[in-house]
Predict the structure of N-acetyl-gamma-glutamyl-phosphate reductase.
Amino acid sequence: MTNVFIDGEQGTTGLQIHDRLRGRSDITLMALPVSQRKDRRLRAEMLNSCDIAILCLPDEAAREAAAMVKNPRVRIIDASSAHRVTPGWTYGFPELSADQPDRIRASMRITNPGCYPTGAIGLLFPLVNAGLLPADYPLSIHAVSGYSGGGRVAIEQYEGEQADAAPAFQVYGLGLRHKHVPEIARYAGLSVPPLFMPAYGGYRQGIVLSVPLQQRLLTKNASASAIHACLTEHYYHSQYVRVLPQVTADDAERINPERLNGTNDMELGLFSSPENGQLLLTAVFDNLGKGASGAAVQNLNLLIGAD
C-alpha cells in the first residue's frame, strides 16, 4: 500500500488528483483536517511520513514544501512550475522519449509538465530530434485554454457573481515573458525561445494549441508526410497520445478544444496546404487532465508500478 499526501488538495489540480485516486485499493490518501492545513509543523510531518508527496501549490510554496522534505525515502511529484527547469528534477512527460518512463521510475523528484508545454513539446521535440525542424526555427505557438487554467481567480471570474461580465476570449502574456517559454525551449530542444501567445476562452476546460510552419524554412526532407510519419512513429506505443490521420487544408474541419475533457489523452494533428507551402501542427487535450492532474497520476502510477 502506498501512502500519498497531496499538499494543496483543495486547489483545482489537487481536487482533480484526489478524485482520480479516491477509491483505489493500492493507495492510501493521507490528509490533514481543514483547520490544520496551514500548520507548517503538521504539514512537515505529513510530507515526511508519506511515501509520495504531490505538491499542488503556488511556485514559492512548492519550493518551501520540497525543502521541508528531509526523509530520503519520500518521493515528490511537483505539479507547480517551480522545478521544471531545476537540475536534479526529472521531467514528468513520459512520452518525451522511449527511456523517459524509466527515468521517472528511478527518480525521487519529478516535476509535472506545464499544461501548454505538454502540447508544444509533444509536437516539437520529435521533429527537432529527428532533424525535420531546425532548432532555431522562428516558432510561434498559439494556445487557448479553458478558464480553469487560470486557477481560482479565473474560475471565480467566470463562475462567480460577476460571471456575466467575464470576457468570452482574452489574450494574456503580452509581455512575452511567459514562465512556460524556458520549459518549452529546453525540452523541445530549441536553441531560440518561441513566441508564445496564450489565451483563455469562455469555457471551463480543454486546450487547443497550434504551431504554424512555413515549408520553405524547414529542412529539405521535412515534407508533410515525413513530419506526420515522425510523429506517428514517436507515439506509436503511447497509451495516451494519438496522432490523427494527416489532413489537407481542403478537408480540414473545426477543432473542438473540449473533446478530450475528463481524460488523460492528447491528440496531435497535422494540417497542410501544399500550394501555399504551409503546415499547421495542433494538439488537443484537457488542461486539467493531461495538462495537470492526469499527468500527475500517470507519473504516480509509474513510481508505484501501476502503469
Observations:
- The chain has a mean pLDDT of 94.
